[in-house]
Design brief:
alpha/beta, Maf protein, six-stranded mixed sheet, 18 strands, 26% strand
């Protein structure tokens, strides 16, 4: 068989009813695409399909013709809805056979756990006759690699790598068995850099970047928005050597930093929370939170980051008015006169969080997340965010925001705005920067 061509482009297929129905979030595709781009292989399509053998076979065949490289995740387990290996056999026109080495590994794994390998489990040791197995040291489902004919394409054959869905199994298999089998085109460089910013709208950022976003520019610059965080993407794909590309991308990054300025909080995989935790730790400072309408979402987002205990002391969820008074000490008169959603209440919540903990800073959030509860003066989407500092424990800065969108969007945008407010305070003490969605 003629060896497959070099790999310049790829397609990624995520398989599973739980993904196509939206029950689970697909994170594998993004990770695989990032790894391929490092190798100079650009992903042309991300496809999510359900557990259907015929649909999987059609998808594999179409993408193999288009890209020459297909990487799938999911559908390799032992249950009746795991049909990836069968679909691969269909497009090859081959029967499934039992791989002796894979079967022996499965039996050894089960025996070591004091279990007996059932007949239904043995399907995981099967592969199309011409395919090879990809070892899975962290699970029971090996992967499969096949070379399939592509008669309607400009290249004679394509590679299809099928990997299991769990990231803890898929990622080591990709690194150990897929990457060494890939053949990136020589003399071709692909580089992508991500610069993250907050507190600024997508339109304002695009206006500030101006000609940097010209679609004919090299390297190419684009913006994506998610929950109040913007990511500026710098991408190069072409014949320049890596050192020259790195210098070119750095020049563009410098121009972006100059245009966007203090709204940038980090690059690469650094999250907004990660940037804040770094700032706090570098100052030996800590944070407490007091939340109403966000119901603990801010605290959860912080504690989702490993190592957050170095800077986060904890939080209070003072959802009901009596909790605001009894838990964090908001004066009942304040609520009676100004309302639970007010500048005064947000201020006392933040001061209470500071008073009740050893934290250096306390953030508070109170608002009308909806869908009901709004008034003419305080419509749904009105949010007050307070920030108190140990340097002035009886004071707190409070800002008013209007967060557009449904309930979940209001809550998530409130959390992002609170984090942005703290970050700008830490990095630019005494400066006043207007934030996205801020009023007044």
């Amino acid at each position: 068989m003629t060896p497959p061509p070099t790999h310049t482009h790829a397609a990624i297929v995520s398989i599973g009813d739980e993904l196509s129905l939206g029950q689970n979030l697909d994170t594998n595709s993004r990770w695989i695409a990032e790894q391929l781009s490092i190798l100079g292989i650009m992903t042309l399509e991300h496809v999510t399909i359900g557990d259907d053998q015929a649909d999987t076979a059609r998808t594999f065949a179409r993408l193999a013709e288009r890209t020459g490289l297909v990487i799938s995740t999911g559908g390799l387990g032992p249950t009746l809805d795991d049909l990836t290996r069968q679909a691969l056999a269909d497009i090859l026109g081959e029967p499934l056979i039992t791989d002796a080495d894979a079967l022996r590994d499965l039996e050894t794994r089960f025996t070591s756990r004091g279990r007996t390998l059932s007949e239904i489990q043995k399907i995981q040791a099967c592969r199309p006759a011409s395919a090879r197995m990809i070892p899975n040291p962290n699970g029971t489902a090996p992967g499969v690699h096949a070379v399939v004919p592509t008669p309607r394409s400009t290249f004679p054959h394509a590679d299809i790598f099928c990997l299991p869905g769990p990231p803890g199994e898929m990622k080591p298999m990709f690194a150990a068995s897929v990457v060494p089998a890939l053949r990136p085109a020589p003399g071709r460089t692909v580089r992508v850099r991500f610069i993250h910013m907050t507190g600024v709208g997508e339109g304002d950022a695009a206006a500030a970047l101006g000609p940097l976003m010209d679609r004919n520019r090299v390297p190419l610059v684009g913006i994506t928005a998610s929950g109040g965080v913007l990511t500026c993407r710098i991408r190069y794909e072409g014949p320049l050597p890596p050192d020259a590309v790195d210098a070119l991308i750095e020049e563009t990054a410098v121009e972006i930093r100059r245009a966007i300025g203090p709204h940038i909080f980090g690059e690469g995989g650094l999250s907004l929370v990660g940037a804040i935790l770094n700032e706090l730790v570098s100052r030996a400072a800590t944070l407490a939170t007091v939340e109403s309408c966000t119901g603990g979402m801010l605290g959860q987002l912080i504690t989702d980051v490993a190592g957050s205990s170095a800077a986060y002391v904890g939080g209070f969820v003072s959802y009901a008015n009596e909790f605001k008074t009894e838990l964090v000490g908001v004066d009942p008169v304040t609520i009676a006169q100004h309302g639970a959603v007010s500048e005064a209440t947000a201020r006392e919540m933040a001061i209470g969080g500071l008073r009740l903990t050893s934290a250096s800073y306390a953030l508070s959030i109170t608002g009308v997340a909806g869908p009901g509860g709004g008034t003419a003066m305080k419509p749904v989407g009105t949010v007050f965010i307070g920030l108190a500092s140990r340097a002035a424990p009886d004071q707190a800065v409070v800002r008013r925001f209007f967060m557009p969108g449904p309930r979940d969007d209001v809550r998530r945008r409130a959390v992002t705005s609170a984090l942005s407010m703290l970050l700008f305070t830490l990095r630019n003490p005494g400066a006043r920067m207007r934030l996205l969605w801020e009023q007044g």
